[in-house]
Write a structure and sequence with these properties.
- This protein has a two-stranded antiparallel sheet with strand order 1-2.
- It is about 75% helix and about 0% strand.
- By secondary structure, the protein is mainly alpha-helical.
- A hairpin with a 7-residue loop joins β1 and β2.
- It has a domain of about 220 residues.
- InterPro entries: NADH-Q_OxRdtase_suN/2 (IPR010096), ND/Mrp_TM (IPR001750).
- It is a multi-pass membrane protein.
Length: about 500
């Protein structure tokens, strides 16, 4: 029996139905302007996030299975990620109003955003490996098309091809991991797989470890962890900047949702020394992302490498989760913060591209005078990404580094994670500061104020309010993140 009033089902119905209807409406309409489709998409996303918030406030998040086969669960963990990804969807849609005004096929563009959002949301609520894989593909396939949306741009075509090839590889790795897990346990339900892993004999344990390794690699591609990050800079640079916002702030977070559902609990059940392995990946990912970002002169490409570095910060909390009670809570807090911060930066780039047609950093000199609101929104977002107080990124990074120090009582290497995080944050501030210096302290070719896209202004204002507001009063979001931490107590562990 299906509970149609449950959060994931209602979100799927709202977003999926509208996503399918938009191309139908496009066929029936004589006028092909993009504003109508953007408004419809925005309405669907607002209705969806409104429903999630209503369910949480009225305590209708039941924590129970939706199907008798237990493939989806209506819990606060899923709702937390749903809110983060819907916010990204809303920011992407609003930021696209101006960007898509004179571009072809707007109905397809907005429809694919909605369908990809359905996949992201279902990933967050999935408790079955097959369901998770289906949702993974539903999220990925529309974004392959969106990454290559600028068909006449060779870099966009290259982005789509690279993204598709690496995406297909990651999907193949994930399905291979699922097949091993099913062969060992006779089930694809995540909880039953974990229980099954805990009962395996020593002769079967290498296969279980291989399965978890397959999941780490598969999800690592989407998240952009080193060494699975090769595709990411080219894909983000070639994609429309609005879609880069969706990829960097949306699909990456869906990858973390899947990782938390599967990898973390599975590794705990196997009692692997996975914490140290994740810590190493976190440090390498942070460092490689930030060092590569410093060398970039293209704004989009710099932000792409910055996204890789940010994934490393989130991994800090996951790597110390078994011994630090605030590890996963801190990671969830930073995931929500990063969703808004990173989406804001790419939407700002979309505004710059729409108005000036440039992405080279040398071309944004004097932007603070020419596009003051866009420049201010970009500046606030960059400072928040660097962890500058009193912005929201400061608090989530402080919690992440604090969780590593707290874990030092049990894990001798954990405090080095905090040291690496602080050093990398300082490193990121160097190249973020370079962008800010170009915008405010160097003269451009002209100081004439330009007309900024209204949709980009709206996103910038929202981002500033969100970043500064949570920076001043972070407690409600921290508590929400705490309530969304997946229950790990009671998991069978092999000793």
């Amino acid at each position: 029996m299906i509970d149609f009033t449950s959060t994931p089902i209602m979100l799927t119905l709202i977003l999926g139905a509208v996503g399918v209807l938009i191309p139908v409406i496009n066929v029936a309409r004589k006028e092909k302007g993009s504003s109508v489709y953007g408004a419809i998409t925005l309405g669907a996303l607002l209705a969806a996030i409104g429903f999630v918030i209503y369910q949480i406030i009225t305590k209708h998040v039941t924590q129970s299975a939706i199907f008798s086969s237990n493939v989806l669960v209506d819990d606060k963990f899923g709702s937390f990620f749903a809110i983060a990804m819907l916010i990204v969807g809303i920011m992407t849609t609003v930021g696209s109003f101006s960007y898509m005004r004179k571009r072809a096929n707007p109905a397809v563009y907005y429809s694919l955003i909605l369908l990809s959002s359905v996949g992201m949301i279902l990933i967050a609520y999935s408790t079955d490996l097959v369901m998770l894989f289906i949702a993974w593909e539903l999220m990925s396939i529309p974004t392959y098309v969106l990454a290559g949306y600028l068909k006449k741009d060779p870099s966009s075509n290259e982005a789509a091809i690279k993204y598709f090839l690496f995406g297909a590889l990651s999907s193949g790795i994930i399905i291979y991991g699922i097949s091993i897990a099913y062969g060992l346990t006779g089930s694809t339900n995540i909880e039953q797989v974990i229980v099954g892993f805990s009962k395996l004999g020593p002769d079967m344990m290498p296969l279980a470890i291989l399965a978890v390794g397959m999941f780490i690699a598969g999800f690592g591609f989407k998240i952009g962890l080193v060494p699975f990050h090769m595709w990411l800079p080219d894909a983000y640079e070639g994609a429309p900047p609005t879609i880069a916002a969706l990829l960097a702030a949306g699909t990456k977070k869906a990858g973390f949702a899947a990782a938390l559902r599967v990898i973390i609990m599975g590794a705990i059940a196997l009692n692997l020394h996975w914490a140290f392995a994740l810590a190493v990946i976190a440090i390498v990912t942070m460092t490689v992302g930030n060092l590569a970002a410093i060398k970039q002169r293209n704004l989009t490409r710099m932000l792409a490498y910055s996204s890789i570095g940010q994934a490393g910060y989130i991994l800090i909390g996951l790597s110390v989760a078994p011994v630090s009670p605030i590890g996963i809570q801190a990671s969830l807090f930073h995931i929500l913060n990063h969703s808004v911060m990173k989406a804001s930066t790419f939407i700002a780039v979309a505004g710059i591209v729409t108005t000036l047609g440039v992405t080279h950093i040398e071309k944004i000199k004097g932007l603070g005078k020419r596009m003051p609101i866009t420049a201010l929104g970009l500046t606030i977002s960059l400072l928040a990404l660097a962890g500058v107080p009193p912005l929201n990124g400061f608090w989530s990074k402080l919690m992440l580094f604090g969780s590593a120090i707290d874990a030092g009582h049990t894990l001798s290497w954990a405090p080095y994670l905090a040291v690496a995080g602080v050093l990398n944050s300082a490193l990121s501030l160097a190249y973020y500061g370079w962008i800010i210096r170009k915008m405010y302290f160097e003269e451009g070719e002209s100081n004439k104020r330009l007309k900024e896209p209204k949709s980009v202004i709206a996103v910038m204002i929202f981002s500033i309010i969100f970043i500064v507001g949570i920076g001043i009063y972070p407690d409600p979001v921290i508590e929400f993140a705490k309530s969304a931490v997946p229950i790990m107590s009671g998991l069978p562990v092999i000793h």
